[in-house]
Amino acid sequence: MGDIAKLIGKRLGLGLVILLIISIIIFFMVELLPGDVAQAVLGQGATPENLAAMRKQMGLDQPAVVRYFGWLAGALTLDFGNSIVTGKAVMSIIGERFMNTLFLASYAAVIAVPISIILGVIVALLRNSIFDRVANVVTLTSISSPEFFLAYILILYFSIKWGMFPSNAKISDGMSFADLLWRTFLPALTLVLVVVAHMMRMTRASIIALLASPYIEMARLKGTPPWKVIVKHALPNAWAPIINVVALNLAYLITGVVLVEVVFVYPGIGQALVDAVSKRDFPVVQASCLIFAATYILLNLAADVGAILTNPRLRHPK
Amino acid sequence: MTKKKDVLLKIRNLRIEGYSNEHWVDIIKGVDLTLHRGEVMGLIGESGAGKSTIGAGAMGYARDGTRISEGSSVEFDGMELTTATESERRALRGNRIAYVAQSAAASFNPAHKIIDQHTEAPLHYRLQKRMEAQEDAMQLYEKLRLPHPHEIGFRYPHQVSGGQLQRAMTAMAMSCRPDLIIFDEPTTALDVTTQIEVLAAIRDIVDEYNTAAIYITHDLAVVAQMADTIKVLLKGEEVEEAPTEEMLDNPKEDYTKSLWAVRSFESPQRQRPKGEVPLISLQHIDAAYTAGPKILDDVSFDIYAGMTVAVVGESGSGKSTAARVITGLLPPQKGEVLFKGEPFTPDYRNRTKDELRQCQMIYQSADTSLNPKVRISEIIGRPAQFYSGLKGAALKNRVDELLDLIELEPALYYNRYPPELSGGQKQRIGIARALAAEPTFIICDEVTSALDQLVAEGILRLLDRLQNELNLAYMFITHDLATVRSIADEVVVMQQGKVVEQGPKDEMFQPPHHPYTDLLLSSVPEMDPNWLTTLLEERGVDNVGDAAAAKIAT
Amino acid sequence: MSLFVIGYYTLILAASCLAAYFNKRSAFLLLFSLTLVSFVLGIIGGVGALKFVVVVAGLIALSAMVSYAFREFLITLSPTGVAKELRTAPLTAAFGMFVIFTYAIAGIFAPLIAPHGEAAVISGAFAPADENMLLGADQLGRDMFSRLVFGARNSVGLALTATLMAFFLGATAGLLAAVKGGWFDQAMGRFADVIMSIPSLIFALLMLSIFGPTIPVIIVAVAIIYAPRVFRLTRAVAGNVVVMDYIEAAKLRGEGTGYLIRREVLPNSMAPLIAEFGLEFCFVFLLVAGLSFLGLGIQPPTADWGSMVRENATLISFGDITPLIPAAAIALLTVGVNFVVDWMLHRSSGLKE
Question: Residue A219 is nearest to which of B92, B109, B158, comparing CB atoms?
Answer without folding.
Answer: B109
